[in-house]
Design a protein that fits this description.
homodimer; alpha+beta; Nucleoside Triphosphate Pyrophosphohydrolase; Arc Repressor Mutant, subunit A; 2 domains; 7-stranded mixed sheet; 3-stranded antiparallel sheet; 6 helices; elongated; DNA-binding
Amino acid sequence: MSLSHSLNPHVSVDCVIFGFSQDTLRLLLIKRNIPNRLTEMNDILYALPGDLVKDSENLNQAADRVLAELTGLKDIYLQQFSAFGDPTRITKAKDRAWLESVRQDPDARVITVAYMSLIDSAKATLQPGSFSEEAVWMPIEEVPELAFDHNEIFEQALAALKESIQMQPIGFELLPEKFTMSDLQSLYETILDRDLDKRNFRRKMINSGVIQALSEKQIGVSNKPARFYRFNREYLEERGSNIVNLRMDGSFTLFN
Amino acid sequence: MSLSHSLNPHVSVDCVIFGFSQDTLRLLLIKRNIPNRLTEMNDILYALPGDLVKDSENLNQAADRVLAELTGLKDIYLQQFSAFGDPTRITKAKDRAWLESVRQDPDARVITVAYMSLIDSAKATLQPGSFSEEAVWMPIEEVPELAFDHNEIFEQALAALKESIQMQPIGFELLPEKFTMSDLQSLYETILDRDLDKRNFRRKMINSGVIQALSEKQIGVSNKPARFYRFNREYLEERGSNIVNLRMDGSFTLFN
DNA sequence: ATCAAAAAGTGTCAAGTGGACACTTTGTAG
DNA sequence: CTACAAAGTGTCCACTTGACACTTTTTGAT
């Protein structure tokens, strides 16, 4: 038992990768063709990128490896956010069919550790897919029924993303090196799913010190060119995550 | 394989239970006597309460069960906070000795899902221990070297506790039904490990609406008797956790 | 009865932050 | 040179925070 480099049949990782570009928040999914014995056609199964963990690697390494293998994405900052392990998570016929085709023990009870990240989907180049497997970006409003309990994992990740962007000015790892204030506001509006006041947003962002204005401006746009900003990495490294505050009225007040 | 009700050899849960009473924050540990073949004496191994997960139960159920089995504590609100799975987490001789005495496959690579909670240790009655195993409360400053990677798990839980008390007025589940403002402040000061201003603390707590003043007061104390308060459960249920706010100067400002 | 001890309880001010709100500027394209 | 489109800008009011020191209330001792 426990050969090094062997797969652990009971532990997997799944990656919830959010991508942002063109004012749209998308989820990275693996689209699989599953042979169906009855119809002799292929069923399509969408799933989060994920796989079993090797005995020789830790969880973070497994997440990095699995994501790279399935999508070609490397050096993504993945953050663990929860473990899922309901013994009844395999209920759908398509799930079983796929497991039977790839796993030694399709009935093994698996717990999965979920990771999430938010990246610039325009900059990320996905590996070209094979016939049976392909990585795709799916707008979050159009996410279909997913394999196993992946819909639940996705929903929880989205909720966690909304919360964390309110506490930490994350969302910079995923913007281009230089971005306009409108890009940034659009990112926040997309994730939080509501409108923000332009002036208050700018004031807050500039005063916070997490971004720096550049002298450079947009060129080739048919309107007033916007100034570029960049993320002030040093600032965040010093601060850590302690940039939150309790409000007395209990109201949620990041931006209105 | 995968008999229902069998233990999953690769997945465990560990519980980080903080207890607060008499102005002290304590950690709940299992103290084990481990036979040592060389010395023919018993080594003592401190560990977080934890064990393997059964194939028939989900992670939350496993955490509840394990905690009850090892300590007698039931109906504790346990919150999952992270999974740990470094393949090198078993390094100490005592760890091996104990695993060999209780596990079928002591070399199996195990990942563990960690849960935490904060309870009123004065109210919680621990099960009396056996010769080889006993649950004990340990002041957090005196936590010794623990089994496996349990020190790391503990440290992360403590950090998470500090963060979460700044965002949510937690800490009520663990106070007596009725408590004084000083009790509450003392809890916050202990967890945050710094002093808070009495007037500002009272103002903030009362205005927030999370506690309600009672007409009852202390009796039998040799000083001005303090008013009792109680936790306003309805309030929190409505609010959820969205009671945080980003400050422009990036400062951390819950209480000073 | 008075006093000492011990902890509870109370108010104000200045500085900073949040949220609401509408017009001007600057570039390009036709 | 005009129209269009998006960028960019300032003020006011209400509220929250943080700093700060004395009075009140009770018990127990003399």
